[in-house]
């Protein structure tokens, strides 16, 4: 028998804490990598490894509470698939918590390394090929999340999502932000993982476009049926 989910305030708190922790890992590992090596490959490897490991652990810990979205793109795509029965208040609350958590996490990372929190990033990321890379990265993320749900394997999310993000940091030109909230948070850190505030709107637009593409791809590959929503015969036996 499935347990009822936690109350909305607890789920929102989980999204705030989880997103904050994730961005602190991303930004903090980038700052640390900057201090340890001048080799861009070494810095990218360190940041990708820390980001993937941190994301996987956070999904495993917070997934049972809020679903561990940590990302407006994931929240919106999940809401769309259940829009007939979904709660729009939850969507707004989740996205607000994710944005606040991302900014908090970036400021925390800056403070942990003795930097003055709140300095705007200065790295511009407006080139068309970077936006294309960001759309591809986000589409792949949505496809992984939706695909796991369609095949009835959401329990693989900690490994699958973390593994995808770790790979996408390397194979996409943008470095795979793939998260509008994290993008906003990273604008508050003038470091290896930062993005200039003026580049944020274009990145967010590319991410939303990627979300739509990922949902279309999931529909083409798996159809509209969601295996995780189908009744489990084992549950029926236990409750019958």
What does this structure look like?
The chain is mainly alpha-helical and 240 residues long. Helix content is 69%, strand content 0%. It is built from 9 helices and no strands. Helix 1 runs antiparallel to helix 2, helix 1 packs across helix 7 and helix 2 packs antiparallel against helix 6. The longest helix is centred in the N-terminal third of the chain and has 29 residues. The chain is globular, with a radius of gyration of 18 Å. The protein starts with 7 loop residues before the first helix and ends with a helix.
Which properties best describe this structure?
disordered C terminus; 9 helices
Shape: globular
Quaternary organization: single chain
The proportion of residues in beta strands is under 5%
Mean of residue pLDDT values: 91
Tell me the structural class. mainly alpha
Proportion of residues in helical segments: 55-70%
Unreliable segments (pLDDT under 50, ≥5 consecutive)?
Answer: 228-240
Q: Please count the beta strands (DSSP E, at least 2 residues each).
A: 0
Task: Outline the biggest β-sheet.
Answer: none
Query: What's the helix count?
Result: 9
Order of helices and strands: HHHHHHHHH
| Rounded Rg | 18 Å
Distance N to C terminus: 10 Å
Summarize the structure.
With 240 residues, the chain is mainly alpha-helical.
Write the layout of secondary structure elements.
Blueprint: H1 8-36, H2 40-66, H3 72-81, H4 88-112, H5 128-150, H6 157-171, H7 180-186, H8 200-222, H9 233-239
């Amino acid at each position: 028998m499935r347990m009822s989910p936690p109350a909305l305030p607890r789920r929102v708190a989980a999204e705030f804490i989880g997103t904050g922790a994730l961005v602190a890992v991303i930004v903090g590992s980038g700052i640390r990598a900057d201090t340890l090596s001048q080799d861009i490959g070494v810095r990218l490897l360190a940041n990708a490894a820390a980001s993937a490991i941190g994301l996987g652990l956070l999904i495993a810990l917070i997934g049972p509470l809020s679903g561990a979205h940590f990302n407006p793109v994931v929240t919106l795509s999940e809401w769309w698939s259940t829009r007939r029965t979904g709660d729009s208040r939850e969507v707004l609350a989740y996205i607000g918590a994710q944005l606040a958590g991302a900014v908090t996490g970036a400021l925390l990372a800056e403070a942990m390394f003795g930097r003055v929190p709140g300095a705007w990033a200065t790295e511009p990321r407006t080139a068309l090929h970077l936006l294309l890379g960001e759309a591809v990265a986000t589409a792949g993320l949505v496809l992984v999340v939706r695909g796991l749900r369609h095949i009835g394997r959401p329990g693989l999310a900690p490994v699958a999502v973390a593994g995808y993000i770790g790979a996408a940091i390397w194979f996409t030109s943008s470095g795979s932000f793939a998260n509008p909230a994290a993008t906003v948070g990273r604008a508050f850190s003038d470091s290896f993982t930062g993005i200039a505030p003026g580049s944020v709107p274009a990145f967010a637009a590319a991410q939303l476009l990627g979300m739509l593409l990922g949902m279309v791809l999931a529909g083409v590959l798996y159809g509209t049926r969601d295996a995780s929503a189908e009744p489990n015969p084992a549950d029926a036996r236990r409750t019958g």
